[in-house]
Each structure stands twice: as structure tokens, then as C-alpha cells.
């Protein structure tokens, strides 16, 4: 297990087809640990999820964090990490949200993307056991972003309106995010 380099926009591996995982062997387990380590090491900016192609592995694997309030101390945010292998959205709400997104593979770009409010996802976990989960809001947004990566799609392909830089984002939205 090790922190891997996160590849960026111009690297073709972000656009290449990703193969289904047939067997969760030692190699796949190592790749999952690499994904977790690499996501954990991304601090500025922090990442809420990471897909295997972002570290140059063209397989249908991603890791997503679900942030919640700490039960013991509501001023703190904690997260639970989910591994999705061969994930598939099995149902999605008609209602959508248009919200800001960014990507560790697309540095310094921000844009609004429309995502389903609620989704249901089926995938295999690290042990190869199938699970289904329901997600809504930000968690659902991040899952949809990561699943796009597994289809070679980047958020910049889907932006509604302008793509702006981190500096523009700060200048324009500073008040709203304070
Ligand atoms: Zn991304």
C-alpha cells in the first residue's frame, strides 16, 4: 500500500475503458489500499472520493467518503469510507441538484453539475459481497461523480454554465461559503 500519483486531465487513462473486477485477488486488494492511501493524502484540496483510473488503474473500483456530524460532538464532521467495486446505479430520483464540483484530476477548475438528489447503488465490497445502498445529497453527488470516472467521464464534460478557477470561486462565493 502506498500513495500513488493522481493523474490529470490530459492523461488518456482517465478516458480509457475500465474493466469489471472478476476476482478480488491480492492485486485488487493492494489497489484498493492504494486508492484509500492516496485519497487520505490529498489534503489541499481534500478529496471526497477517488476512482481507480485517477491513479492510472483502469478498473471499476472507487472509494467514496460519506460525511456526517459526529454524534458525540456535532461541531465535528466525521466520515465513513465506502469501497465500490463494479458499482451500478439501479434507481435515481427525478429531482436533481445543480451544485459546484471539483476534481483531484482537474486541478483548479470548478463548475456546476446537475446530479440526481437520491440514488440507489449496487456494488461489491472489498470482500466481494454484494451490497445496495441509498444515498442522497452530497454523498449521492460524490458517488455519481466517481461512477462517471469509471465510464471515462469527467465533471467538466457536464458543467452547466461557466468553468471557473479557484481564485474566481473564492472571489465570487466567499460570502456564501463563510
Ligand atoms: Zn473526480
UniProtKB/TrEMBL annotation:
Active site (UniProt): 146
Cofactors that this protein relies on: Fe(2+)
Enzyme class: hydrolase
Pfam families: Pep_deformylase
Biological processes, Gene Ontology terms: translation
CDD domains: Pep_deformylase
Keywords: Hydrolase, Iron, Metal-binding, Protein biosynthesis
EC number: 3.5.1.88
GO-annotated molecular function: metal ion binding; peptide deformylase activity
Coiled-coil segments on the chain, per record: none
Catalytic activity: N-terminal N-formyl-L-methionyl-[peptide] + H2O = N-terminal L-methionyl-[peptide] + formate
Binding of Fe cation, residues: 103, 145, 149
CC cofactor note: Binds 1 Fe(2+) ion.
Family affiliation: Belongs to the polypeptide deformylase family.
PANTHER family in the record: PEPTIDE DEFORMYLASE
Function: Removes the formyl group from the N-terminal Met of newly synthesized proteins. Requires at least a dipeptide for an efficient rate of reaction. N-terminal L-methionine is a prerequisite for activity but the enzyme has broad specificity at other positions.
Protein name: Peptide deformylase
Amino acid at each position: 500500500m502506498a500513495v500513488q500519483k493522481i493523474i490529470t486531465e490530459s492523461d488518456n487513462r482517465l478516458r480509457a475503458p475500465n474493466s469489471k473486477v472478476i476476482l478480488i485477488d491480492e492485486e485488487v486488494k493492494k489497489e484498493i489500499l492504494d486508492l484509500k492511501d492516496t485519497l487520505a493524502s490529498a489534503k489541499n484540496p481534500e478529496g471526497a472520493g477517488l476512482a481507480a483510473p485517477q491513479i492510472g488503474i483502469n478498473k471499476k473500483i472507487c472509494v467514496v467518503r460519506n460525511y456526517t456530524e459526529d454524534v458525540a460532538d456535532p461541531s465535528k464532521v466525521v466520515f465513513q469510507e465506502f469501497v465500490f467495486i463494479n458499482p451500478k446505479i439501479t434507481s435515481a430520483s427525478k429531482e436533481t441538484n445543480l451544485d459546484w464540483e471539483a476534481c483531484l484530476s482537474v486541478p483548479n477548475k470548478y463548475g456546476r453539475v446537475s446530479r440526481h438528489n437520491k440514488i440507489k447503488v449496487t456494488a461489491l465490497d472489498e470482500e466481494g459481497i454484494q451490497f445496495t445502498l441509498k444515498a442522497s445529497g452530497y454523498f449521492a453527488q460524490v458517488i455519481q461523480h466517481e461512477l462517471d470516472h469509471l465510464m471515462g467521464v469527467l465533471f467538466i464534460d457536464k458543467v452547466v454554465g461557466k468553468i471557473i478557477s479557484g481564485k474566481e470561486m473564492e472571489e465570487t462565493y466567499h460570502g456564501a461559503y463563510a
